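Lab notebook, bench 4. Still working through the backlog of constructs that have no structural model yet. Next entry is a single chain of 265 residues. Request: give me the structure tokens for it.
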Amino acid sequence: MKLLISPAKKMRVDRDFLSPQTTPALADQSALLLKELRKLSYSQLKKLLACSDVLAREAFAGFQEMELPWGETPALLAYDGIQYKYMAPGLFTQEQLDYVKDRLRILSGFYGVLRPFDGVSPYRLEMQAKLSTSRGKNLYQFWGSLLGEHLLGEDSVLVNLASEEYAKAVRHSVEGKARFVTCVFGEETEDGNLVEKGVYVKMARGEMVRFAAERMAQSPEELQAFDRLGYQFDRKRSRENTYVFRRESVPGKRKEVFRENKDCR
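Model written out:
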């Protein structure tokens, strides 16, 4: 079983805690992307990334200076979003670090698929970016079936804890060839509907990885016992390959429409 998660936009360099142990498996593909990114002017890159001047200048300099395939920070520690804060990898025991090293995979627009101890450099490139290459007009076309094929070479059971932006880069090439279980985290409203709220979904995904590592979970069925942040497995709403975890809605919070398999990082 492999747990699939999204990256975070915010990244950091950490040279002190743990050192990288491996290089990204698809670094040769990242090198092709880097070549295309370096062709872009600053204004073209800023438009592609749709971000502020500060972030665009940082990204532009980063791509110009980046050296592949080796990065200074293990992927597990390089991302700094809500999901990763709740996963809290810096608090893992050695046994738990060994578990995620084997079981966790991070999907990335730039690196494709990352193992937790692959060395990475800070970058800004979301999977939905419309970067034109010889393979097509966006990153979904660039990666094609490569991500799915790589994962199929590692395991036949995949647990999807990624946002739809990243999950759809894999789903099309693994369905029918592997078991692909998507975890949905929703709140039940007074009228009985189920809604997903982005921040809480991110929190739950991080907690689920920690839960799996603490339990040394070997199968998706073991994840049904997840009971953190007020969530409980909803057997009635769940299906063989869609696990729904429900909690009571918090009064006064903005409601969002629930759509299965459509969520935020």
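Notes after review: The longest strand covers residues 179-188. Residues 2-248 form one domain. Flag for follow-up if needed.
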